[in-house]
């Protein structure tokens, strides 16, 4: 995924629609139910900070691996793609297992077609509750600022747990935003989720009992647009 803050990988969990608490009196048009991003993992620090602060998106750092490189523009996708997501602070060869892994197999018996998200028959409005600030966030920010004054620069793709604290900002308002977009080449795909056999400590990264669908969408050359958020306090 390429963005104004640079490319990064992303795994997003949207369980469905949630009830939205209504303020006692407001002229704002706030939906009574809306989608909610319950958890999201990304491979870059800048988007973690921006997503949390601007849209209440509960981003956390993680390390990603893919069995095939990015599909060049206009070419056919790979036969299948295995995606693995690891806890922050891990690296290749350390023996730590992924907390999520799946194989995506794009459909090949139908050609890709362009899709506009405006055609989707459901609302793409998301409403996010306030998110808590990570413990030690302000101390971590102060330490980073001191490091920068000494000329030290942290790699934005450093996904260590220590460096996540400085970008894990919190908010105190509710936030609503719509998501629009279009896809030049879209097709279906089969989704096979693997059992990773993670330890009890690593299970905290993935909700227990969550069973993803066995099929999904394979999208190439997609452009997603998040609208200006609407904020309010209860």
Layout of SSEs?
Blueprint: E1 10-13, E2 17-19, E3 33-35, E4 39-42, H1 45-55, E5 59-61, E6 63-66, E7 81-86, E8 100-106, E9 113-116, E10 125-128, H2 137-149, H3 161-165, E11 174-193, E12 215-226, E13 230-232
Parallel strand pairs: 4-5
Antiparallel strand pairs: 1-4, 2-3, 6-7, 7-8, 8-11, 9-11, 10-11, 11-12, 11-13
Structure description:
This protein is mainly β and 234 residues long. The protein has one domain. It is built from 3 helices and 13 strands. Strands 6, 7, 8, 9, 10, 11, 12 and 13 form an 8-stranded antiparallel β-sheet that branches. α1 (45-55) links the parallel β4 and β5. The relative contact order is 0.21. The model has no long low-confidence stretch (mean pLDDT 88).
Summarize the structure.
This protein has helices at 45-55, 137-149, 161-165, and strands at residues 10-13, 17-19, 33-35, 39-42, 59-61, 63-66, 81-86, 100-106, 113-116, 125-128, 174-193, 215-226, 230-232. It starts with 9 loop residues before the first strand and ends with a strand. 12% of the residues lie in helices and 33% in strands.
Q: How many domain modules?
A: 1
Largest sheet: 8 strands, antiparallel
Tell me the structural class.
Answer: mainly beta
Mean pLDDT: 88
Helix content: 10-25%
Q: How much of the polypeptide forms β-strand, as a percent range?
A: 25-35%
By DSSP (H or I, 4+ residues per run), the number of helices equals 3
Total strands: the figure is: 13
Q: What order do the helices and strands follow?
A: EEEEHEEEEEEHHEEE
Radius of gyration: 19 Å
Quickly list its features.
eight-stranded antiparallel sheet, 12% helix, 3 helices, mainly beta, 13 strands
């Amino acid at each position: 995924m390429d963005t104004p803050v640079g490319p990064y990988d992303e795994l997003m969990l949207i369980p469905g629609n949630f009830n939205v608490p209504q303020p006692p009196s407001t002229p704002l048009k706030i939906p009574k139910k809306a989608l909610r991003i319950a958890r999201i993992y990304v491979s870059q620090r800048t988007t973690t900070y921006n997503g949390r602060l601007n849209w209440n998106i509960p981003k956390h750092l993680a390390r990603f691996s893919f069995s095939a490189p990015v599909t060049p523009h206009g070419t056919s996708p790979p036969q299948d793609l295995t995606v693995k997501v690891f806890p922050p602070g891990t690296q290749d060869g350390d023996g730590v297992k992924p907390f999520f892994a799946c194989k995506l197999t794009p459909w090949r018996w139908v050609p890709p077609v362009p899709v506009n998200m405006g055609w989707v028959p459901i609302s793409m409005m998301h409403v996010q509750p306030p998110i808590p600030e990570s413990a030690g966030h302000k101390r971590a920010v102060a330490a980073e600022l001191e490091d920068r004054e000494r000329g030290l620069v942290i790699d934005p793709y450093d996904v260590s747990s220590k460096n996540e604290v400085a970008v894990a900002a919190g908010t105190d308002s509710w936030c609503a935003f719509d998501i629009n977009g279009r896809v030049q080449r879209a097709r279906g795909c089969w989704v096979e989720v693997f059992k990773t056999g993670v330890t009890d400590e690593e299970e905290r990264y993935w909700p227990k009992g969550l069973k993803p669908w066995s099929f999904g969408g394979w999208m190439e050359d997609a452009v997603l647009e998040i609208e200006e958020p609407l904020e309010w306090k209860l």
